[in-house]
Structures are given as structure tokens and as C-alpha cells.
């Protein structure tokens, strides 16, 4: 490096934000500078601390947080009851013994199934991606079939069996799919063998005909879907859609999997399946089940999950993991679910009320300022779509939502201390730690931001 370029980079690092400096420092050792490249934002903001509804960046700036770490923090960050339980577990000398059963995993399984009574058995994993990939393995073992239907615009984790077709452009999709059609396969990662891609079939959400067409064409083992599309905001199922899927699964003998990694314990204690009154064969959970500690669950019908111990080795499904049901996240999950299910706390009613106040305030602001927007809420999850209609599927979303306005809106909120993930359509999540004052302050900032965007002709 020349002395001139050394001097230039020294000067720029002196003026770069501490977040940017930290990113550059980490990049020396970690590709992209962070452990999940999905967390990358521009400009980079590195956070140093979080408590309740708030986060602080490395420069000490405080934010009211609605990102919630991609949704887990339903009780708020660093919940004191969850923390106390974890500290007590460590002091008791709980360990991941790696041999035999533990009392805690059984107690968590019992409580989990009490919260989600539609499910009969449960297994614990470390991430939503693991649980969802395992659901497909179980479905294939059970049905003896290989093909899988997924939703365009859905996300079900980072594994080969699901990592396709989340945020594709009109060009990538090559135009509107014909009724009952299959979208082209757009892998989210290099490195998925073609043979695996050939088994995956992305269809439009809210389109029963498309599912039936795939079932008639391929030997479908499973349909895996978020019951509400929540990785592209909040797109709820049309009336009768989930019931229709249940009927098709029964008629054609495929396994219906609800990926409730995002909706689970956030839509309601019993998951979105409780809200919808439709019971899948399998469902996966993560995120809010331990308020941010790394644990996930695959739950479902006994005949499916008992394949883990099937006497026939040709039907037996491998369930193994050094850290499965590790005592720290198990303890965190127990504390979290106890709190969420405590009738004296009425947390879901509180979450509903706070989120409703927020979204109705947002609707008033957009309407008063003349901004065409649709604010959609499911429980404590919410999003603002900037367009003339709330999308019912991915195609409607990419052709109606003003992504550029959304990006500017989010950036302006962040600059004024309201943290939403700065990528268009990412869901906002209210936690039990958000107070009425936080919501009122948030609405004040949204009002200022929208007014300023309108004044600047955005
Ligand atoms: C619906 C859904 N399924 C699965 C996953 C994967 O979970 P994890 O990131 O814990 O592997 C996510 C993560 O965002 C998700 O939103």
C-alpha cells in the first residue's frame, strides 16, 4: 500500500462511524464482517446493547426497536424473568450431559404441547432451518415420495431443501405465472445440486389450483408454507385457503407442514394454526418460543414424529444433535412460555391492543398526509405496504408495492431513532415491553418522517 493510500484510509477510518469501523475490523476475519450476511445493512449500524423495547448502537444512540432481531423478542430484549431463569440454571450446574433424558426437556415438551394442543409430539432443534429441513425428511420417510411444494415469497430457512424463491424480481420470474402454474426455480444460494432443485416446486401463495396442478404432476411428499407469509411483510391467507390445503393434503396424501417459525407464539399461544382453526400434520417453531435463545421445535402427529424410533430401519428417521435441547435455551423457553401462558398477565391481549393502536395511528397518518398505504397486522406483526391494495401474493406485491419509498421511509425512521430493518417489506414486531408512551412517540416520529418525505416529493 502506498503512503498516500495509507494516509487516505487512516483519514477515512477516523471519519467513519464506529459501526463502519467495527464492520471493517470484523471483515478481516469473517466474510462480510458478520455471522449472518442477511443482517447486512447500508449504512452499517452495529448494536452494543438492548433492553426491553430499546436498542443502543455502538455510538450510544438509542432506538425504539421494532425489528426484534427478525421477530423472536416477543417479551422485549433481555427479559428479566428469562434472564433470571437462565442464570439460575447455570448456577445449578445444568449441563448438556449428552447422555440419556433430562427432566427439563420433558417439562418443556409438556408445556409446549399444552400451549399448542393441536400437536401431539415435539422434538427440539437449534434453529428454525434445522426444524423445517427435518420436517421434509420426515414427510419423505412417511410418504415414500420426494417432491416438495413451497410458496413463492416464503422463507423456510437456509437449507437446500427450501432455499429458493423468496424475493425474486419480475424479470427473474419471467412474467406472471399462468393459473395453476409453477414459478421458475430461483435458488437463494449457489451450491444446490440440480437434482435437489428438481424436487422443489414453488407456487403462488393463496392459489389452491396451483397446488392441485403440482400434486397431479409430481409425487408430492410435503407442502411447506408459512401460514401467513411473514418474510415479505404480512400476507394473510384468503378465507378458505388453509382449509383448502388441508383438504388437498387429505385427498392426495401429502404432508401439510406449517412453518410457524415466525408466527408461532407470536400470532397466538397456539400458533397461527389456532387462529385459523386448521391443523397441519407437522409444524415448526423457533424465534418467539424462547424470546431469542437458540431453540426450535418440530411438532406434529404422533405417527409422523414416532418415526424417530420406528423399529423398521427403512422407515426410521434420524434425529440427532449434540446441542438438541441444550439446557440453557430449554430453560429460556420454559420461562418464556410460562410467561406467555400466564393468564394473569394477559400478554396477548396487551400485544393486540398496543399493535392495534400503532397500526391505526399509522393509517391515520398516511391518510392525512395523502400517502397511498395499506397497513396490515397479524397479532403483533405488522407492515406498511405502499400501494393501492394490500397484496395477497408475491406477484401482487412486486407489481404494486413502492419499494423505493419503503426504503426511504425505513431509513428516515432509523435516523430518528425508530428501528425497523432497513429492507423493504420486512415485518415490524411489537413486544410486551413496548409501552403506550413508546407507541405514541413512534407515531410522532412516523408523522414527521412521512411529512418530510411528502414535502420532498418522495
Ligand atoms: C418462517 C421461517 N422459517 C424458518 C426460518 C429459519 O429459522 P432460523 O433462522 O432460526 O434458522 C425463518 C427465519 O427467519 C423463518 O422466518
TrEMBL record:
The cofactor named in the record is: pyridoxal 5'-phosphate
Q: Its Enzyme Commission number? A: 5.4.3.8
Q: What class of enzyme is it?
A: isomerase
- Please tell me whether the keyword Isomerase is annotated for this protein: yes
InterPro entries assigned: Aminotrans_3 (IPR005814), Aminotrans_3_PPA_site (IPR049704), PyrdxlP-dep_Trfase (IPR015424), PyrdxlP-dep_Trfase_major (IPR015421), PyrdxlP-dep_Trfase_small (IPR015422)
> Which residues lie within the region annotated Disordered?
1-20
Signal peptide extent: none
What Pfam family does this protein match (any one)?
Answer: Aminotran_3
Give the family this protein belongs to, as stated in its UniProt record: Belongs to the class-III pyridoxal-phosphate-dependent aminotransferase family.
* Matches recorded under PANTHER family: GLUTAMATE-1-SEMIALDEHYDE 2,1-AMINOMUTASE (PTHR43713), GLUTAMATE-1-SEMIALDEHYDE 2,1-AMINOMUTASE 1, CHLOROPLASTIC-RELATED (PTHR43713:SF3)
Name of the featured protein: Glutamate-1-semialdehyde 2,1-aminomutase
- Source species taxonomy: Bacteria, Pseudomonadati, Planctomycetota, Planctomycetia, Pirellulales
Amino acid at each position: 500500500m502506498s503512503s498516500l493510500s495509507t494516509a487516505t484510509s487512516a483519514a477515512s477510518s477516523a471519519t467513519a462511524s464506529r459501526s463502519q469501523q467495527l464492520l471493517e475490523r470484523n471483515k478481516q476475519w469473517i466474510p462480510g464482517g458478520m455471522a449472518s450476511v442477511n443482517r447486512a445493512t447500508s449504512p452499517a449500524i452495529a448494536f452494543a446493547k438492548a433492553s426491553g423495547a430499546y436498542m443502543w448502537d455502538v455510538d450510544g444512540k438509542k432506538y425504539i426497536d421494532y425489528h426484534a432481531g427478525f421477530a423472536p423478542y416477543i417479551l422485549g430484549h433481555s427479559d428479566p424473568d428469562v434472564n433470571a431463569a437462565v442464570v439460575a440454571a447455570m448456577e445449578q450446574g445444568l449441563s448438556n450431559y449428552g447422555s440419556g433424558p433430562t427432566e427439563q426437556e420433558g417439562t418443556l415438551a409438556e408445556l409446549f404441547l399444552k400451549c399448542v394442543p393441536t400437536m401431539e409430539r415435539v422434538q427440539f432443534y437449534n434453529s428454525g432451518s434445522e426444524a423445517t429441513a427435518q420436517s421434509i425428511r420426515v414427510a419423505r420417510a412417511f410418504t415414500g415420495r420426494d417432491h416438495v411444494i413451497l410458496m413463492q415469497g416464503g422463507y423456510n430457512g437456509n437449507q437446500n431443501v427450501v432455499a429458493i424463491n423468496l424475493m425474486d424480481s419480475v424479470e427473474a420470474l419471467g412474467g406472471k405465472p399462468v393459473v395453476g402454474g409453477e414459478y421458475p426455480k430461483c435458488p437463494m444460494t449457489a451450491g444446490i445440486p440440480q437434482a435437489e432443485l428438481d424436487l422443489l416446486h414453488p407456487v403462488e401463495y393463496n392459489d389452491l389450483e396451483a397446488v392441485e396442478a403440482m400434486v397431479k404432476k409430481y409425487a408430492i411428499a410435503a407442502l411447506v408454507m408459512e401460514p401467513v407469509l411473514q418474510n415479505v411483510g404480512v400476507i394473510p391467507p384468503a378465507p378458505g385457503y388453509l382449509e383448502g390445503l388441508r383438504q388437498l393434503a387429505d385427498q392426495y396424501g401429502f404432508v401439510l407442514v406449517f412453518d410457524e417459525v415466525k408466527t408461532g407464539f407470536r400470532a397466538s399461544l397456539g400458533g397461527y394454526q389456532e387462529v385459523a382453526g386448521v391443523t397441519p400434520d407437522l409444524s415448526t417453531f423457533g424465534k418467539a418460543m424462547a424470546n431469542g435463545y437458540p431453540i426450535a421445535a418440530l411438532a406434529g402427529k404422533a405417527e409422523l414424529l414416532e418415526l424417530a424410533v420406528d423399529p423398521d430401519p427403512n422407515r426410521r428417521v434420524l434425529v440427532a444433535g449434540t446441542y438438541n435441547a441444550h439446557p440453557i435455551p430449554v430453560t429460556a423457553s420454559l420461562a418464556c412460555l410460562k410467561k406467555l401462558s400466564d393468564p394473569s398477565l394477559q400478554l396477548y391481549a396487551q400485544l393486540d391492543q398496543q399493535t392495534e393502536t400503532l397500526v391505526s395511528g399509522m393509517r391515520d397518518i398516511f391518510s392525512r398526509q395523502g400517502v397511498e398505504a395499506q397497513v396490515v397486522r397479524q397479532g403483533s406483526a405488522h407492515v406498511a405496504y405502499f400501494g393501492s391494495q394490500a397484496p395477497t401474493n408475491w406477484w401482487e406485491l412486486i407489481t404494486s408495492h413502492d419499494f423505493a419509498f419503503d426504503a426511504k421511509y425505513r431509513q428516515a425512521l432509523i435516523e430518528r431513532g425508530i428501528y425497523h430493518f432497513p429492507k423493504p417489506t420486512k415485518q415490524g414486531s411489537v413486544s410486551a415491553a413496548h409501552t403506550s408512551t413508546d407507541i405514541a412517540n413512534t407515531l410522532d416520529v412516523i408523522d414527521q418522517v412521512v411529512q418530510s418525505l411528502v414535502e420532498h416529493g418522495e
